[in-house]
Amino acid sequence: LFPSFSGARPMSYAQMPNDLEAFWMPFTANRQFKAAPRLLVSAKDMHYVAADGHKVMDGAAGLWCVNAGHGRQKIVEAVQKQVAELDFAPTFQMGHPKAFEAASRVAALLPGDLDRIFFANSGSEAVDTALKIALAYHRARGEGSRTRLIGRERGYHGVGFGGISVGGIVNNRKFFGGLLTGVDHLPHTHNLEKNAYTKGEPEWGAHLADDLERIVALHDASTIAAVIVEPVAGSTGVLVPPKGYLKRLREICDKYGILLIFDEVITGFGRLGSAFASEHFGVLPDMVTMAKGLTNGVIPMAAVGVREPVFQAFMQGPENAMELFHGYTYSGHPIASAAAIATLDLYREEGLFERAASLAPYFEEAAHALKGLPHVIDIRNIGLVAGIELESRPGKVGARAYESLVKCFEQGLLIRTTGDIIALSPPLIIEKNQIDELFGILSKVLRDID
Ligand code: PLP
């Protein structure tokens, strides 16, 4: 029997999959993985248990989503209760109380007048939703010529056609045809020469936001609908915005009537020590996309928070006319809504965002103590997230980080890698001694890899 945290249903070898072929795994080298699979069979608080029984500390909050830690009883019970009470109800021309309650709770958490909430099921859908709202908003105001969307190099906004179009990761784009037309990209803010080993926000680079002026000069503001950025780019290696950069973007967007969208799928729900990064940086966007930590990763759910004036632009026509031709079968799903409410309760009751803020300096020191280890060429961090950049092996980008991932897993630590960057984003319940353990395992592995 495999050990199981629940105690109730330990997994036996007979229950393990004996055929790994059918599942076409996402963002995975399928053949490599299936030759030596890593299977997780249960989880509680800071740890997974792998199929061979060894404990694995979660240094990545699953995929940046399990902010309150695993197996939280309050969420388990909320989900169990909801599935027994009301398993599904449509939210097209119909409603159920939990979706409204969840929306109010999210609106209350968002800064400023980001008071209207559109639900989706994944970060990718939230991004598509926000981009569509931006386009429809300008049209509703009689500015239908504003159709250009502006993303950023090294931006990750999920894998929908909207998200990969405004996103700036070549491999996520180049296999998939023409993508959306009328898209431009701001330069990314990653610069090892100027900013290596910066703690928190780098001093250098705010001027990179001025590139938006160049794009406006090239196309005219009357053609531009929205700019979308991650306040901290996560998936491309924890790129913390230079001091003043986001404020500058906000100013230029205001000057030209361009909507500013913050993709907070990773930064939302406490990662930086505040509910949202917009609050942390003191910059109010027109829309915020979120997912992951919204339900602690338990059930898929995502949302777009929309500022009041944007919402009101849609509310001008006849009252019996649908205002936005958009929605998903599972928008505001009852079980996801119940999970979200319970999750937000947990964050508040346990003060997890404040906890992240108070642990951040300790986490920062522990991360930067890796400086000087073999292959390490940069360390950057903010809140409870850090990126450790390794020098790539010639001609083998990503190989070194992948070897680290495999060895960390063997030694009891789950990390996330992107190219040759290791990203660490543990659940916000982590203890100081677990931070020590996490970086202890990583530093051992970094001394050990080729
Ligand atoms: N946007 C950002 C900033 C993300 O980090 C992610 C996922 O990591 C997404 C969007 C896509 O979310 P999903 O995988 O739920 O579609």
From TrEMBL:
Transmembrane regions listed in the UniProt entry: none
Q: Name one Pfam family in it.
A: Aminotran_3
Query: Which GO BP terms, alphabetically?
Result: biotin biosynthetic process
What this protein needs as a cofactor is: pyridoxal 5'-phosphate
Q: Mind listing the UniProt keywords for this protein, alphabetically?
A: Aminotransferase, Pyridoxal phosphate, Transferase
The record's Gene3D superfamilies line, in alphabetical order, gives: Aspartate Aminotransferase, domain 1, Type I PLP-dependent aspartate aminotransferase-like (Major domain)
Tell me which PROSITE patterns the record gives: AA_TRANSFER_CLASS_3 (PS00600)
> GO MF annotations for this entry?
adenosylmethionine-8-amino-7-oxononanoate transaminase activity; pyridoxal phosphate binding
Entry similarity comment: Belongs to the class-III pyridoxal-phosphate-dependent aminotransferase family.
Q: What is this protein called?
A: Aspartate aminotransferase family protein
